[in-house]
Amino acid sequence: MMNHPFLVSLCLRGDFLSTSENRGRMMSVIELLTWVAILIVYGGSGLLIENLGYFAFFYLIGGLVFVMGLVGGLLAQEEVPTDVPQKSYWKQLAEAFQWKTLTANRDFFLVLLGISLWAIAQNVFFPYLIIYLQHYIRLDTMTATITIAVAILVGGIALAWPIGLLVDRWGRKPMALVAVGAEMLGLVLFSLSRTLALLLATGILWLIPLTAWAIATGTWSKDLLPEDRRGQFLGFYLFFLVMIPMVLGSLVGGWLGTRFGIPTVINGQPGFIPTPLLFQVAGVATLLAAIPIGFAKEQRA
């Protein structure tokens, strides 16, 4: 969904530069930069789509992500490791998947399961957001782009830092659980909105908990990383955050759109117009994330 290579690398590096006391604030900065990247994409999408079409838009954005990720990776400074593991790579990998390793880090994997369930729900609707606003709500491209941009400015960029402060003060688990309920409510109300004012208000309503969830669970998962295997377990984090959701969520969203969407032809290509059902299903599916989160503890045992 929203995973920029340079920001992912920044997220990983931020783990080593933060402590449990300030990690919420550190994650809020990373989340803020994530929303800035998304704002740049959506801010320019209107003009690109109108002049070049959808395919050129996706090719250009994909190329931009590749170039920025490559440049960011080359420019990133890496500290020379002082405590090199004595075991072989394959032995360490095998040990990471042993049952005793999983049970010893039970809370970490419960948080990861919640992160994955949440991200699956988001990937049900997010790839179709602009298409929904343009072809179902019938906003022109520029209006749809501006609507999303304003929602991101308010719900993502403006509130990322205050939410990070609250996560450090209030706690990871309470913020995550509140975000689950608020996200479900925001997505359902968004699906029922038809006027520009209501779309903007309810868009902000589901973007705020999206920001809160990302900061709370990103902070929480890093609190639970085992000190001697932080690099290995960050691999688990990306697997649950990126790979699983982008496959399963996209498949569910594509099936719902094909099965219940409105057949159409866009730019000479057959397709479908997504309906409010995508947001409603995603909202209800978001509630599943509360189950593993509810059983997880905030601190390592």
Helix and strand topology:
Elements: H1 5-16, H2 23-52, H3 54-75, H4 89-96, H5 99-104, H6 106-125, H7 129-136, H8 141-170, H9 172-192, H10 196-223, H11 230-260, E1 262-266, E2 269-273, H12 277-286, H13 290-295
Antiparallel strand pairs: 1-2
Helix pairs in contact: 1-2, 1-3, 2-3, 2-8, 2-10, 6-10, 6-11, 6-12, 8-10, 9-10, 9-12
Can you give a write-up of this model?
- The protein has 301 residues and is mainly α.
- It is built from 13 helices and 2 strands, in the order H-H-H-H-H-H-H-H-H-H-H-E-E-H-H.
- The chain has helices spanning 5-16, 23-52, 54-75, 89-96, 99-104, 106-125, 129-136, 141-170, 172-192, 196-223, 230-260, 277-286, 290-295; strands at 262-266, 269-273.
- A two-stranded antiparallel sheet has the order 1-2.
- Helix 8 packs parallel to helix 10.
- Mean pLDDT is 84; it is low at 1-14.
Short description:
With 301 residues, this protein is mostly helical.
Rounded average pLDDT = 84
Alpha plus pi helix count: 13
User: What is the CATH fold-level name?
Assistant: Growth Hormone, Chain: A
Fraction of residues in helices? over 70%
- Looking at the overall shape, the CATH architecture is Up-down Bundle
**Full CATH superfamily name:** MFS general substrate transporter like domains
Query: Runs with pLDDT <50, length 5+?
Result: 1-14
Number of strands: 2
Adjacency order of strands in the biggest sheet: 1-2
Range of strand content: under 5%
Structural class: mainly alpha
> What is the CATH C-level name?
Mainly Alpha
Largest β sheet strand count, sense and barrel closure:
2 strands, antiparallel
Radius of gyration: 20 Å
How many structurally independent domains? 1
Write down the overall geometry: globular
Order of helices and strands: HHHHHHHHHHHEEHH
Multimer state = single chain
